[in-house]
Amino acid sequence: MAKYETKTKETDANVIEFVEAVDHLKKREDAYKLLEIFEQTSGYEAKMWGPSIIGFGTYHYKYASGHEGDAPLVGFSPRKAKISLYFATGDTTREETLKRFGKYTVGKSCVYINKVEDIDVDVLKEMIIQSIAFLQELYPNQ
Fold it and tell me: 15-47 pLDDT, tens per residue?
């Protein structure tokens, strides 16, 4: 059986060049707002992960199946349809926190928003902090 290789890896791509290439002006403005919020709240410098995810910090995971890899602690991506926010999966506090977040939809590992004005930025900061703490506890010695 071939070993699974994750496509989402940290790259040397320029984060600002990526944001500047976002077609929609409002999404580009929101990307700059999120960039500032995530950097200030996480304390990590923004890095590109794969072609379209802006990630902050990193951790190494290893599943019971043996699959392992590296991923950003938190991140976001200004996609065409919605902005994807990446937080830890399995964090049981997220559901409760989302009740105060504002207008969003949720997927398996992402929280989707249309624009920053739709959400409570203080709750976003709380979610960033919670997600990082959860992952650092789950995967210590990083």
Answer: 999 999 999 999 999 999 999 999 999 999 999
Residue 8 belongs to some domain of the structure? no
Number of domains in the chain: 1
User: Does residue 134 fall inside a structural domain?
Assistant: yes
- CB of 78 within 8 A of CB of 70? no
In this structure, what CATH number is given to the domain that contains residue 80? 3.90.1150
What are the residues facing 84 on neighbouring strands?
Answer: 77, 112
Q: Where are the alpha helices (DSSP H) in the chain?
A: 15-20, 25-42, 93-98, 121-138
Q: What is the pLDDT of residues 79-111, one digit of tens each?
A: 999 999 999 888 888 889 999 999 999 987 799
Q: How many residues does the chain have?
A: 142
> Residue 40 domain-assigned?
yes
CA dist 59 to 15, 74, 96, 131, 136, Å? 20, 10, 24, 12, 8
